[in-house]
Amino acid sequence: MRYLPKLQQLKVFQQVIRSGSIRGAARALGQSQPAVSRTVRELEQILQTQLIVRSSQGMTLTETGRVFALRMQLILEELQRAADEIQQINQHSQGSVAFGCSSLLALTVLPALVDDFKQSFPQANLGIREAQLSTLLPALREGRLDFAVGTVSPELPLEGLVREPLFDASFCIIARREHPLAQATTLDELREAKWLLPETDMGYYQQLQSVLGTFYQQLTSPPIRTDSVVCGLNMVLQENYLTIVARAMSTPFYLQQRLVVLPIKSLPQAQYCVLYSEKSPLTVTARRFLDLLRIHCQRHAW
User: At what angle do helices 110-120 and 284-299 cross, to 10 degrees?
Assistant: First the structure.
């Protein structure tokens, strides 16, 4: 390969992937379809490979197209991050931070953390994505997130990522205060109850699976699976479901008078970690946010 691809070619190819077609990319970029097609052909010629296949059903990436798209996304995200950091230096801009976390942080330290951060960086752009860590990993690897917080388990692919422990959290079973099993003290008493559990079986919930796997198999009816905190709480409050949450989440949304923690203490603790790229340095703004996150996590009673 005599020449490297041009930045504009990468951006056009990125838009083709996002739009799913040459026509959609041309519309999004404000260019003609022939111009977009020509740019893609030039990129293929430079790389000496076919990147996309067009058919009546639409556009699909070839094997080499998928490999190149992954690397290209990292390059473009890193370039954007570098440009943002230079802008911060030259224009005293306050930059941006994008991070992901589970609902535990969202319902505990996040409001005070954001308030602290905004006092130092009032003009900074802040993006927050709430999801399980297994769902956040692709965005973290592609550079769309600066870092992510969650529980880690052995099967999660963490190559190229720094893993930094933040805190340990206790978990518990919660129910509606009037639930007929609200005073149960053993899991055996809960086999005929209605259960709602997180959809993921990774991170802490894999640990739960290994501890409670036999109990799950003995349930009278299979549990409902969801990662939605709002859905879960509503099912607990309205339809007498039981669910497992971090103890620090047992009184969300000022529902202390309507929810109760069952007196069962056989659930393992979970270690929450922050993950960030080993090779791509965090911006000044992201580093400051992470410093504040560490402080707030250390102070909180998990």
Answer: 140
Are 35 and 41 in contact by the 8 Å Cβ rule? The answer is: no
Task: Identify the CATH class of 7-82.
Answer: mainly alpha
Answer yes or no: same fold for 94-167+272-299 and 170-270. Answer: yes
Q: What would the pLDDT profile of 110-151 be if each residue is shown by its tens digit?
A: 999 999 999 988 888 899 999 888 889 989 988 899 999 999
pLDDT in tens, 33-72: 999 999 999 999 999 999 999 877 778 899 999 999 988 9
CATH top-level class of 94-167+272-299? alpha beta
Boundaries of every domain in the chain = 7-82, 94-167+272-299, 170-270
CB 165 within 8 A of CB 294: no
State the DSSP code for 192. T
- Cα→Cα distances 266→170, 208, 246, 262, 270, Å: 10, 10, 13, 11, 13
Q: Hunting for tokens 């992510």 — which residue is that?
A: 148
Tell me if residue 73 falls in helix, strand or coil: helix
Q: What global pTM score does this model have?
A: 0.68
Q: Which residue has the tokens 């020509």?
A: 38
Which CATH number is associated with domain 170-270?
Answer: 3.40.190.10
Condensed to tens digits (0 to 9), the pLDDT of residues 202-256 reads 677 777 877 888 888 889 999 999 888 889 999 999 999 999 988 888 777 778 8
Strands (E), 170-282: 171-176, 194-197, 224-225, 241-246, 259-261, 270-277
- Angle of helix 63-91 relative to helix 7-19, nearest 10 degrees, comes to 120
